[in-house]
Amino acid sequence: MTKALSLHNITAHYGQTKVLDDLSLEVAEGELVSLLGASGCGKTTTLRLVAGFLKATAGTIRLGDEDLARLPAHKRNIGLVFQNYALFPHLSVADNVGFGLKQRGVSGQERAARVGAMLERVGLSALAHRLPNALSGGQKQRVALARALVIEPPLLMFDEPLSNLDAKLRVEMRLEIRRLQQANGTTSVYVTHDQEEAFSISDRVAIMHQGRIMQFDTPENLYRRPANAFVARFVGFETLLPMVVSARHGALVEARAAGGVKLSLDEAGLGSIPDHFVLACRAEGLGVTAGATGIPAVLGLRTYLGRAYQYQCETPAGALVANGPLNQPLELGAKVQLELVPEQCAILRRE
């Protein structure tokens, strides 16, 4: 895997506050990587360091064989797409898209050809002479994307590019971004706080917290095999149940939790189970049943989700979240069993 972008042991401060803490990241050529996390986790700071808008306290940033620390921002040849579009209000769509080419001294004839081809690619040829104030939010974002791509940068970076769009348009534009990125084979870094957005368009995702990368993996592995409790909660595992193995019978493991709760787990479906572990379950991973085995529970607050009824359940092991059948809501206060659905559960090591 060819390394296009390499960040090694990056530390960064705002004043006395450390915002990145020994962060390392490798992005392969042609890959789209998302930096995902809550506000203040350091994802935008990482982008600004690569772009040259900030300087790291320690560490190195390389793009291919080039040390970016030696280059000012305007010489890094990085395409940038911002949340607020950053279009020139007095320039037409075509002139906005061609601005970077003009700054690089591309001749008028070649510039017009490249701008025309790019506008056609993003579906804006008919709007080439309009000013930005006559465009919709989605059209403005397409102009911003075209402007970033037309310079054929070795690296394209997105800073929360869809936050200003409505939900339907966000879905359309994220698909468009992925289509264009793959068609051009442009190495890309995408900053977002939206998990669905990151997972839907990325080859790999770095989940960040307090200036560190908590896990860097494919969306599928993050969803199914979180590396720690923070990532598990971030990707939707509501229940984290500390457990201890009491017996092993080949791939079948008997384990116990607080309150005398006992479960039989199969390593064939869950992976290797250490002697002390945390069972992480989504609400879908605990099914409400009237059977005789599982975790005894009393149903509490009921919520309708469309795909299921969800219940807050009181159990000997504490409060757990579980999904019940959609065909009929269950009575609050009913005594039931919570049955494990292995494909919606994961095994975490105790931290």
Order of helices and strands: EEEHEEEHHHEHEHEEHHEEEHEEEEEEE
| Beta-strand percent range | 35-45%
Determine Rg (CA atoms, Å). 25 Å
Average pLDDT rating: 92
Give the strand order, joined by hyphens, for the main sheet.
Answer: 6-7-8-3-9-10
CATH topology of the largest domain: Rossmann fold
Instruction: Just name the CATH architecture of the largest domain.
Output: 3-Layer(aba) Sandwich
Taking the sheet with the most strands, its summary is:
6 strands, mixed
Which geometry do the CA atoms define? elongated
Number of helices: 9
CATH class value of the largest domain: Alpha Beta
DSSP E strands, number = 20
Please describe what this structure looks like.
The protein is α+β, with helices and mostly antiparallel strands. It folds into 2 domains: 3-232, 3-Layer(aba) Sandwich (Rossmann fold), CATH 3.40.50.300; 237-349, OB fold (Dihydrolipoamide Acetyltransferase, E2P) (Beta Barrel), CATH 2.40.50.140. Helices cover 25% and strands 37% of the residues. It is built from 9 helices and 20 strands. The strands form 4 sheets. Strands 6-7-8-3-9-10 form a 6-stranded mixed beta sheet, sandwiched between helices. Strands 13-12-11-14-20 form a 5-stranded antiparallel beta sheet. Strands 15-19-16-17-18 form a 5-stranded antiparallel beta sheet, with no helix packed on it. α2 (93-103) packs parallel to α4 (137-150) and α3 (108-121) crosses α4 (137-150). The two termini are 32 Å apart.
